[in-house]
Backbone:
């Protein structure tokens, strides 16, 4: 990866803004500190690679760390992972260059999962968030823990199960915590499968990063489900954007006051897709919903939402979209798994890939290219143009169930699949093609 000095102006602004929000240093070392990367939008904050991709990646190391779909986070020379071994949840810190375990902490976390969700295992599903010297993990029963990232010391833990019963949906808690401006945001509450369609109890809660004390809560649409929150700055105003049981909501992250709200009920309450912004335009989808877009804009002293377009030509279920080559690129649940690109201004579908790619793929944008991590353990790298996805390389990264969101740092890809954590190098082609 290039130094900060060689990044484009836009990339420097994005990196500095993310660092300020997360409490990280904006200099030198690259980070993948949270769900979907530095800006929480599935993009790599580094100059594009062009077509210089090796014929094969180099496996630097791998080791078993436990089950679950929680993705790895990376900073400095370390990687952190949250997983399950038997009846325990395990939080570990490892050396990025060697895989050496630096510390590991275990907690018994019994969990009774609904039978329909058992093929996905007992989690954890939520990806940790790293802010400065603190690591925040959300277990499958929605217990939020703050750890000293360097030593593994437990700093504080909060559990709302006594107030919101049950504290998870029938899959288990899966929305990744978000750290911003000295606060950690988590949407607590849920309901089991037999209670779907009935109001549940819950709240979006802002907790102090320092000691875990509650600062505010929003209870306008009961329980949270699976989609992770984001913060988007529009017109100088930060908006905490998240999906509740039957709506998409924007609140002021500093005070919890509601700025706007969009009705958005989802069949079977399968609300999983992370909201995506292209400027002031919110683009999202969910199970059987098709694609939707709204412009979020000021109106007088408040805010309004203007629907721009919607259609059911493609739809998202378990995969969140990215922006690459000026397009929204997503992995549709239709056609048994199909990559597509659309114009965010009018929703027009510009191209579709082959169908039958599976139930899930994690997408990472790198300039005008997209890395497609398929659930079968393969990685497809492609270039985005107006009318197509042009495949550049395909790699086999192990063939295990790869639902955890990968991390990309420098020329390394860090993946979590099955029980395995693995680091691959994708250096310049001449360094690996010999």
Residues:
């Amino acid at each position: 990866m290039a130094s900060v000095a060689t990044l484009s102006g836009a990339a420097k602004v994005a990196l500095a803004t993310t660092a300020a929000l997360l409490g990280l240093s904006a200099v030198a070392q690259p980070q993948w500190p949270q769900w979907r990367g530095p800006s929480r939008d599935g993009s790599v904050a580094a100059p594009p690679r062009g077509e210089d991709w090796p014929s094969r990646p180099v496996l630097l190391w791998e080791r078993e760390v436990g089950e679950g779909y929680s993705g790895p986070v990376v900073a400095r020379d370390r990687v952190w992972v949250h997983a399950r071994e038997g009846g325990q949840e395990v939080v570990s810190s490892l050396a990025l260059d060697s895989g050496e375990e630096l510390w590991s902490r275990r907690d018994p976390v019994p969990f009774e999962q609904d039978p329909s969700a058992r093929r996905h295992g007992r989690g954890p599903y939520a990806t940790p968030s790293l802010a400065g010297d603190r690591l925040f993990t959300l277990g499958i029963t929605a217990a939020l823990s703050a750890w000293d990232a360097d030593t593994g010391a437990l700093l504080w833990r909060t559990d709302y199960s006594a107030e919101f019963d049950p504290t998870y949906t029938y899959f288990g808690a899966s929305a990744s915590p978000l750290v911003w401006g000295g606060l950690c945001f988590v949407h607590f509450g849920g309901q089991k499968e037999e209670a779907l369609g009935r109001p549940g109890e819950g709240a979006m809660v802002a907790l102090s990063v320092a000691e875990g004390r509650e600062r505010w809560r929003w209870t306008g649409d009961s329980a949270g489900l699976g989609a992770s929150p984001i913060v988007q700055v529009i017109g100088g105003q930060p908006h905490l954007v998240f999906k509740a049981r039957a709506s998409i909501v924007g609140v002021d992250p500093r005070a919890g006051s509601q700025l706007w709200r969009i009705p958005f009920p989802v069949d079977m309450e399968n609300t999983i897709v992370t909201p995506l912004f292209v400027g002031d335009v919110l683009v999202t989808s969910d199970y059987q919903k098709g694609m939707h877009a709204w412009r979020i804009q000021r109106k007088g002293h408040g805010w309004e939402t203007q629907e721009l377009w919607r259609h059911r030509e493609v739809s998202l279920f378990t995969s969140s979209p990215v922006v690459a080559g000026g397009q929204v690129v997503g992995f549709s649940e239709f056609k048994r798994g199909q990559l597509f690109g659309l114009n965010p201004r009018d929703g027009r579908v510009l191209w579709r890939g082959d169908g039958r790619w599976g139930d899930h793929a994690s997408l990472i944008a790198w300039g005008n290219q997209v890395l497609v991590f398929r659930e079968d353990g393969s990685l497809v790298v492609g270039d985005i143009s107006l009318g197509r996805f042009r495949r550049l390389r395909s790699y086999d990264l192990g063939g295990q169930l790869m639902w955890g969101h990968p991390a990309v740092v420098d020329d390394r890809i860090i993946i979590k699949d099955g029980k395995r954590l693995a680091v691959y190098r994708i250096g310049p082609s001449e360094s690996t093609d010999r």
User: Anything to note?
Assistant: The radius of gyration is 20 Å. The longest strand covers residues 290-299.
